[in-house]
């Protein structure tokens, strides 16, 4: 479904991504992990059009989308959340999510958009906050709102950037279940960047490990967590399955 | 809640009727003051599209007033086109210039944009002076026609109704605009440009069109202004003071809201005109100082403007009453 | 040959003027760089400086260069008062930079109106021996007033640079400009530094106003604008965080204006000034506020 081919992204002298290739199959949940500064968010920014790579291609359903502007990539059916949530602070939660439905893939009318937005707000259990200004939300709610907003664009492929970081364990497990259900019940394809190993390992179909801007390992959660290279890269950080 | 909104409508209806019959019992001076407040309210609301909803602080809107005023006046005086038609052309000319400013806003943020718009307005003024064959240069253009078919009236009361209609149209437009797809997109960009792109909003196009809409409306306001004063000249229209006042009125009233422009204008315009009348305009600058003081006080003490304050108070009372 | 030397004369005059632009821009650049806030009233503080020169010289008959010291102190105080009223209450709030734009705009309007009320709109100037005395170097003639203004500009810029590099408070100002959070962590009183920066920036504007007034015959409430626009161009052209850059940018812009006068008609030259200004603004916004769009 998505194919990233030999992507190189530099910032000045720093090579953030060094010939990274990655594929995602339809209806798969791919966990993208790696230590801080390994290039995970940069890769997201390349896929979603925020960065233009110096080399390499990004293909989506066989179509070259490299360097398309972000709003056009949304229209192709790829949506994302941000590592640090970016709410439209002075719009209500409902308007935040509606904006995505109105401008996303389908360009829904106002009433349709409201329906779509309410559905997703219910899905992420934020419906009772619909009329609150987004800046009043706490960090967990902001993340959930961003998830609902991304979903309202009507994506087939969803990129989640550290969705569960900062959540307490029980909240984390709930959100993780929600994400898994998106794949199992709604047929979405998801790439999720996570620091919390437990979350990634428990729900991913496959895990891709980035280290210093290049692929370190790839495979099932079990394979990856036993990989000595991965263990070394995380330098003793315990990885639990 | 139900009762509350009924009351709201009753109050609005009473105010509306009072405004309509105002010229019947008020003297010419009072009518003229309120009329000017409406005009400034409309200009502030036009500014609000880009300045409030778009979050791009323009200090060059006097240029759009001038472009609108000159377009319709030249059409009227040189070609006999009625301003009832000419005002749309005025809007288009100003709107095209607004699109250029919108392109600039893609690169310029905050104070840089404000500076750019100041320079833009100065440039427009100099060009109006330079092309004197068309614009009359420093002598300006005097409107010589008369009659309502040319949007020219005998009494101030007629202008009062014209400006009242303009102001009401402005409020209704903003009410519709802020709930529209485009309006939400523009606000989303103001709040977070990257997130806006991330939900599929075309940032470039939205910003350019937003600026064009703002300028279009301001251009129409320019036509009406010219029709009222009957005389236009670059140095009396393209004044930084005007650009500043428009922005100040909107910020004081509450930027990014449908009523901010009206509230700000109803407070600031009568106050400054009264000050001028009391001191006979002998002391230049006295009415202007008011704008500075009120702007300073509101920004420091009441962020969100007066409408924002009222709304917060009202919301908290509603919540408290629950 | 006669023509050539006339042109040289003109260009040198404009280069000298450009040097003074550097001084008028210095305070603006300092405040902008440290607080990331534009002092919208900068030109009006210049104007107040000009009037300070006018009144002290005409009322008390003191030397205009002593007036420059008076203006430095007076405007420094005025700047600190302005800071307390208009900057400090909003600068750290969300949207604070937009708010400072509005509050300094309010201050600008107030200062202009006050000047109109107190001193009327009619332009003023004062006679002084420096303006009417000329010196000639290598066949280039210039008034002593302009020559002194140019020299003081360079001295002031060097002095400010050294102050920022060597004096304790200066170093603290630099620290705040580069990393306000870090500065606070190492125990710098950030609000106090902001206050001093704003005071210093406005004091420099006041001093610049006096120097301008020694040769500029047009002291009036709206005189700030002419110098304001030039100051903004210089700051933007020089880029933030450079003190020496200001003087070079000033001279370049002065010379460009001179060339504009030679090549174009005067009416068109004014148009050109704004076209160039817009071009500079549009082509050189990097390193300023709106960094790059693509930064997540």
List the helices and strands and how they pair.
The complex is a heterotrimer of chains A (241), B (322) and C (296).
Chain A: E1 2-11, E2 14-24, E3 29-33, H1 40-47, E4 55-60, E5 63-64, H2 70-76, E6 78-80, H3 93-103, H4 110-123, H5 139-152, E7 157-161, H6 169-184, E8 189-193, H7 197-203, E9 206-211, E10 214-219, H8 221-226, H9 228-233
Parallel strand pairs in A: 3-8, 3-9, 6-7, 7-8
Antiparallel strand pairs in A: 1-2, 1-4, 4-5, 9-10
Helix pairs in contact in A: 3-4, 3-5, 4-5
Chain B: H1 2-25, H2 28-53, H3 61-79, H4 83-105, H5 110-130, H6 132-135, E1 141-142, H7 156-179, H8 181-191, H9 193-198, H10 203-229, E2 231-232, H11 234-237, H12 240-253, H13 260-278, H14 286-301, H15 305-321
Antiparallel strand pairs in B: 1-2
Chain C: H1 2-35, H2 42-60, H3 64-91, H4 96-119, H5 129-132, E1 134-137, E2 140-143, H6 144-166, H7 168-178, H8 180-185, H9 190-213, H10 224-238, H11 244-263, H12 266-283
Helix pairs in contact in C: 1-6, 1-9, 1-10, 1-11, 2-3, 2-4, 2-9, 2-10, 3-4, 3-9, 6-7, 7-9, 10-11
Word description of this protein:
The complex is a heterotrimer of chains A (241), B (322) and C (296). By secondary structure, chain A is α/β, with parallel strands linked by helices. Chain A is built from 9 helices and 10 strands. Chain A has a 6-stranded mixed sheet with strand order 6-7-8-3-9-10, sandwiched between helices. A 4-stranded antiparallel sheet of chain A has the order 2-1-4-5, covered by helices on one side. The longest helix of chain A has 16 residues. The radius of gyration of chain A is 17 Å and the shape is globular. The two termini of chain A are 27 Å apart. The model of chain A has no long low-confidence stretch (mean pLDDT 91). Chain B is globular. Chain B has one domain: ABC transporter involved in vitamin B12 uptake, BtuC (Orthogonal Bundle). Chain B is mostly helical. In chain C, a hairpin with a 2-residue loop joins β1 and β2. Chain C has a two-stranded antiparallel ribbon with strand order 1-2. Chain C has one domain. In chain C, α3 packs antiparallel against α4. Chain C has 12 helices and 2 strands, in the order αααααββααααααα. The interface between B and C is large, with 44 and 50 residues.
């Amino acid at each position: 479904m998505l194919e990233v081919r030999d992507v190189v992204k530099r910032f000045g002298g720093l090579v953030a991504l060094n010939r990274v290739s990655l594929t995602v199959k339809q209806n798969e949940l791919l966990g993208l992990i790696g230590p801080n500064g390994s290039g995970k968010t940069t890769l997201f920014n390349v896929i979603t059009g925020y960065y233009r790579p110096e080399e390499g291609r990004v293909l989506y359903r066989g179509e070259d989308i490299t360097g398309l502007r972000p709003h056009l990539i949304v229209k192709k059916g790829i949506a994302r959340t941000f590592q640090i949530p970016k709410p439209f602070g002075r719009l209500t939660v409902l308007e935040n999510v509606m904006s995505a439905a109105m401008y996303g893939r389908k360009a829904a009318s106002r009433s349709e958009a409201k329906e779509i937005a309410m559905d997703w707000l219910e899905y992420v259990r934020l419906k009772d906050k619909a009329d609150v200004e987004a800046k009043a939300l706490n960090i967990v709610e902001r993340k959930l709102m961003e998830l609902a907003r991304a979903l309202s664009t009507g994506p087939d492929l969803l990129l989640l950037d550290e969705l569960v970081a900062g959540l307490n364990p029980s909240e984390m497990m709930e959100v993780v279940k929600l994400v898994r259900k998106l794949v199992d019940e709604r047929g979405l394809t998801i790439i999720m960047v996570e620091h919390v190993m437990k979350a990634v390992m428990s729900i991913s179909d496959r895990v891709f490990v980035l280290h210093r801007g290049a692929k370190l390992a790839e495979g099932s959660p079990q394979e990856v967590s036993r990989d000595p290279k991965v263990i070394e890269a995380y330098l003793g950080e315990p990885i639990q399955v | 809640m139900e009762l509350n909104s009924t009351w709201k409508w009753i109050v609005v209806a009473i105010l509306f009727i009072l405004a309509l019959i105002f010229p019947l019992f008020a003297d010419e001076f009072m009518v003229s003051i309120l009329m000017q407040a409406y005009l400034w309210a409309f200009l502030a609301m036009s500014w609000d599209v880009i300045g409030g909803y778009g979050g791009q602080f323009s200090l060059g809107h006097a240029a759009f007033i001038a472009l609108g005023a000159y377009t319709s006046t030249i059409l009227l005086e040189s070609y006999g086109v009625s301003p009832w038609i000419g005002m749309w052309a005025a809007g288009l000319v100003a709107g095209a210039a607004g699109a250029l400013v919108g392109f600039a806003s893609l690169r310029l943020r905050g104070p840089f944009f404000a500076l750019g718009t100041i320079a833009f307005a100065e440039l427009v003024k100099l060009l109006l002076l330079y092309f004197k064959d068309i614009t009359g240069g420093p002598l300006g253009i005097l409107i010589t026609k008369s009659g309502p078919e040319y949007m020219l009236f005998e009494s101030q009361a007629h202008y009062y109704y014209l400006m009242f209609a303009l102001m009401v149209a402005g409020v209704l437009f903003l009410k519709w605009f802020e709930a529209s797809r485009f309006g939400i997109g523009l606000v989303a960009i103001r709040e977070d440009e990257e997130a806006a792109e991330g939900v599929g909003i075309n940032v470039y196009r939205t910003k350019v069109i937003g600026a064009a809409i703002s300028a279009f409306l301001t251009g129409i306001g320019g036509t009406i202004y010219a029709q009222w004063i009957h005389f236009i000249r670059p140095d009396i229209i393209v004044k930084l003071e005007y650009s500043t006042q428009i922005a100040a009125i909107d910020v004081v009233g509450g930027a990014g809201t449908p009523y901010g422009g009206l509230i700000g204008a109803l407070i600031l315009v009568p106050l400054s005109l009264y000050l001028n009348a009391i001191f006979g305009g002998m002391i230049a600058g006295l009415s202007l100082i008011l704008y500075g003081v009120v702007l300073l006080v509101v920004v420091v003490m009441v962020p969100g403007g007066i409408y924002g304050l009222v709304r917060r108070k009202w919301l908290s009372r509603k919540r408290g009453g629950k | 040959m006669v023509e050539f030397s006339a042109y040289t004369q003109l260009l040198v005059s404009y280069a000298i003027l450009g040097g003074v632009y550097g001084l008028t821009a210095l305070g603006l650049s300092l405040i902008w760089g440290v607080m990331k806030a534009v002092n919208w009233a900068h030109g009006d503080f210049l104007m107040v400086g000009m009037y300070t020169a006018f009144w002290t010289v005409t009322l008390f008959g003191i030397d205009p260069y002593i007036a420059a010291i008076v203006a430095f102190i007076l405007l420094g105080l005025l700047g600190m008062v302005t800071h307390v009223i208009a900057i400090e209450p909003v600068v750290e709030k969300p949207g604070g930079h937009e708010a400072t734009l509005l509050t300094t705009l309010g201050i600008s309007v107030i200062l202009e109106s006050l000047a109109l009320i107190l001193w009327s709109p009619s332009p003023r100037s004062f006679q002084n021996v420096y303006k009417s005395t000329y010196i000639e170097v290598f066949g280039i003639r210039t008034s002593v007033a302009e020559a002194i203004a140019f020299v003081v500009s360079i001295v002031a810029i060097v002095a400010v640079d050294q102050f920022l590099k060597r004096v304790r408070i200066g170093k603290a100002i630099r620290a705040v400009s580069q990393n306000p959070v870090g500065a606070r962590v190492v125990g710098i009183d950030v609000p106090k530094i902001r206050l001093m920066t704003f005071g210093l920036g406005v004091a420099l504007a006041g001093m610049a106003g006096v120097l301008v007034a020694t040769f500029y015959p047009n002291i009036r409430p709206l005189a700030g604008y002419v110098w304001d626009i030039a100051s903004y161009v210089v700051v933007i052209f020089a880029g933030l965080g450079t003190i020496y850059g200001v003087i070079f940018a000033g001279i370049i812009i002065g010379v460009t204006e001179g060339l504009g006068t030679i090549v174009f008609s005067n009416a068109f030259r004014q148009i050109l000034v704004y076209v160039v200004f817009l071009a500079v603004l549009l082509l050189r916004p990097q390193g300023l506020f709106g960094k790059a769009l693509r930064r997540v």
